[in-house]
Amino acid sequence: MLAAKLWNRNRDLTRACLDHPFVRGLGDGTLDRDAFNRYVAQDAFFMRAFLRAYAIGAARCDEFEHARCFHRFMGGVLDELKLHADYAAKLGIDLDAVTPFAATSAYIDFLQRTAWHCSVAETVAAMTPCMRLYAYLGEQLRGRLWPDHPYAEWIHTYGDEDFDRLAGEVEALLDAVAEDTPAVRDAYRYAMQCELDFFSAPLEDMP
């Protein structure tokens, strides 16, 4: 299946994400709290754009069932945004006053441009890495939890079976609408690189 092929072709980037200092810090609980706060703010900003890209994808679908898939995915994004709102309330973050980092803007620009101007196949290819990567990271980090782990909620959210199932649904849509073309491969690869850059930004912008 195409989704599995693309995932395997980009194992270098998935490994780089798992080994990234930000993700390692999430896993072992040593991540600087200010860096996590910046990440939460940026991710909430990004997820709002992700939601819009799903909506654009749904509007451009010729197949009604494919549009229904996008609608389900939007529900998953709304659940993630609730998580971020809960984090923000606890951490005192004003999500309406977030200034995007360069990495966040680059990722959003790519998604919006793809959703508006490219095929539905490329749009799904651009959005699949975020879902599958986070399910993978959650599953990998879940075994490192201990009582009162500072980032247990994040790890439980993305290591949960429901999130893995949603990632699988996105991959199933990719298999249904896309072929193994250079444009699809490039969209998937670039999105995975954006994910890696997204983890770097909260650390690089530390005082």
Tell me what you see in this structure:
The protein has one domain: Up-down Bundle (Heme Oxygenase, Chain A), CATH 1.20.910. By secondary structure, the chain is an all-alpha fold. The chain has helices at 2-9, 11-18, 21-28, 33-59, 64-91, 102-117, 120-142, 152-159, 161-177, 182-204. Helix 4 runs antiparallel to helix 5 and helix 5 (64-91) runs antiparallel to helix 9. The model has no long low-confidence stretch (mean pLDDT 91).
Q: So what's the CATH class?
A: Mainly Alpha
Number of strands: 0
Helix percentage: over 70%
> Judging from the principal axes of the Cα atoms, what is the shape?
globular
Q: How large is the radius of gyration? A: 16 Å
Structural class call reads mainly alpha
Largest sheet: none
N-to-C order of helices and strands: HHHHHHHHHH
How confident is the prediction overall: mean pLDDT?
91
CATH fold-level topology = Heme Oxygenase, Chain A
Please report the number of helical segments: 10
Strand percentage, roughly? under 5%
CATH architecture: Up-down Bundle
CATH evolutionary superfamily = Heme oxygenase-like
Uncertain parts: none
Topology:
Blueprint: H1 2-9, H2 11-18, H3 21-28, H4 33-59, H5 64-91, H6 102-117, H7 120-142, H8 152-159, H9 161-177, H10 182-204
Short description:
The protein has about 210 residues and is mainly α.
Features:
Heme Oxygenase, Chain A; single chain; 207 residues; mainly alpha
